[in-house]
């Protein structure tokens, strides 16, 4: 088993380099829920072609990118942030990272240019697992779990390098994985 750390809310899932499901190819997911009832999280590094203004036309600041949170309920909008002093009602899932909160306040802050993409990340859909599904995938080495990351990495607009940098940050045991080609047939 590749992963030495158990899954839990607030931890990152890093997909194995040859993940067969294209939804999760070279993905880094932050888990927001993990229990006997299943798991939920958001892909941090699969940016869509949409900006927030495309999805919410009543929000005048449209420069914030929207990410594909996962293949479940893709017609829903979710967010994580790191500014609880501005947004009430969020749940702290990791140190300095909050899930949810007062959506009307978020729209007001964005419209008045008081909230930036360095403070909040939006997702369409989410990644979800039924009871025991994620644990089975971990036993099959589909994911590596880590709790060693900085909030800056979660909110960085670094979709092309986040997977590689996260794998390398795990140390020498995993660093060689970061250099695997995306398609092993081209090696």
UniProtKB/TrEMBL annotation:
InterPro entries linked to this entry: AlgH-like
Q: Which domain of life is it from?
A: Bacteria
Identify its protein family: Belongs to the UPF0301 (AlgH) family.
What name does the UniProt record give this protein? Answer: YqgE/AlgH family protein
Protein's organism: Mucilaginibacter pankratovii
Upper lineage? Bacteria, Pseudomonadati, Bacteroidota, Sphingobacteriia, Sphingobacteriales
């Amino acid at each position: 088993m590749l992963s030495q750390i158990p899954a839990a809310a607030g931890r990152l899932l890093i997909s194995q380099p040859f993940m067969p499901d294209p939804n999760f190819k070279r993905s880094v997911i932050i888990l927001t829920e993990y229990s006997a009832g299943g798991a939920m999280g958001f892909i941090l590094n699969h940016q869509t072609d949409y900006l927030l203004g495309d999805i919410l036309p009543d929000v005048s600041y449209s420069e914030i990118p929207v990410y594909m949170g996962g293949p479940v309920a893709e017609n829903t909008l979710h967010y994580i942030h790191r500014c609880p002093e501005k947004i009430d009602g969020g749940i702290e899932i990791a140190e300095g990272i909050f899930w949810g909160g007062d959506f009307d306040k978020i729209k007001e802050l964005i419209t008045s240019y008081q909230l930036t993409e360095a403070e909040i990340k939006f997702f369409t859909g989410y990644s979800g697992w039924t009871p025991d599904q994620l644990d089975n995938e971990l036993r099959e080495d589909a994911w590596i779990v880590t709790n060693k990351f900085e909030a800056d990495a979660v909110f960085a607009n670094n979709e092309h390098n986040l997977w590689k940098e996260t794998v390398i940050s795990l140390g020498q045991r995993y660093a060689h994985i970061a250099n695997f080609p995306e398609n092993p047939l081209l090696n």
